[in-house]
Design brief:
The structure holds 2 protein chains of 2 kinds.
Chain A: E1 9-13, E2 18-23, E3 32-38, E4 45-50, E5 55-56, E6 61-64, E7 70-75, E8 84-91, E9 104-109
Chain B: E1 4-7, E2 10-13, E3 18-25, E4 31-37, E5 44-50, E6 53-57, E7 64-70, E8 73-79, E9 87-94, E10 103-104, E11 108-112
Parallel strand pairs in B: 2-11
Antiparallel strand pairs in B: 1-3, 3-8, 4-5, 4-9, 5-6, 7-8, 9-10, 9-11
Classes of the chains: A mainly beta, B mainly beta.
């Protein structure tokens, strides 16, 4: 079973920021927090990952709670192309137990 | 274009057929993965190979047989499949160590008749 919980769906307006939450209360000290997204009719796409500190890349930002039991993926300005299912996944240090949950389906309204 | 290619993109096969899915990665990675995505279900990890050795097999039926001849190629051999095996089969690759950032191929859409 997935070790993370996410809302089933979220909506955003185009060009506004989006905050996608993820709870992972059973995270262990060496688990990485990964985010992927899957656009319609495509394979999943890596978005960002983190361990303890907040992370930024060209696609998004990842804010990790101090106790690491939750995290938030931030899309700074949503576009129509960001409409996808977003997955928050924990991965252990050995690369095992990589379990996808149902994710959050993000709709972006023009 | 992720650097991971899969062939064929679509496959229709009967329950008595034998077919193979192919995955190739051009990223210099050492780990490769097979996933199954059925309609309205989360992705399910099937097999993991790290440095050509199988490191994970998530209770997959023996009618699915993986093969990893080298770090760049991964096959999934299929025989005597069932209609419920119809799904999107995705291949991914990553470095052989943490944080295992995975790059996915476009998938093979398999229909078993």
């Amino acid at each position: 079973d997935a070790k993370t919980t996410q809302p089933n769906s979220m909506e955003s307006n185009e060009e506004e920021p989006v905050h996608l939450p993820c709870n992972h209360s059973t995270i262990s000290g060496t688990d990485y927090i990964h985010w992927y997204r899957q656009l319609p009719s495509q394979g999943p796409e890596y978005v960002i990952h983190g361990l303890t500190s907040n992370v930024n890349n060209r696609m998004a930002s990842l804010a990790i709670a101090e106790d690491r039991k939750s995290s938030t993926l931030i899309l700074h300005r949503a576009t129509l192309r960001d409409a996808a299912v977003y997955y928050c996944i924990l991965q252990d240090n050995y690369g095992q137990n990589f379990v996808f949950g149902p994710g959050t389906r993000l709709s972006v309204l023009p | 274009e992720t650097g991971v290619t899969q062939t064929p993109r679509h496959l229709v096969m009967g329950m008595t057929n034998k077919k193979s899915l192919k995955c190739e990665q051009h990223l210099g990675h050492n780990a490769m993965y097979w996933y199954k995505q059925s309609a309205k279900k989360p992705l399910e990890l099937m097999f993991v190979y790290n440095f050509k050795e199988q490191t994970e097999n998530n209770s997959v039926p023996s009618r699915f047989s993986p093969e990893c001849p080298n770090s760049s190629h991964l096959f999934l051999h299929l025989h005597t499949l069932q209609p419920e095996d119809s799904a999107l089969y995705l291949c991914a690759s990553s470095q052989g160590g943490p944080p295992y950032e995975q790059y996915f191929g476009p998938g093979t859409r398999l229909t078993v008749t």
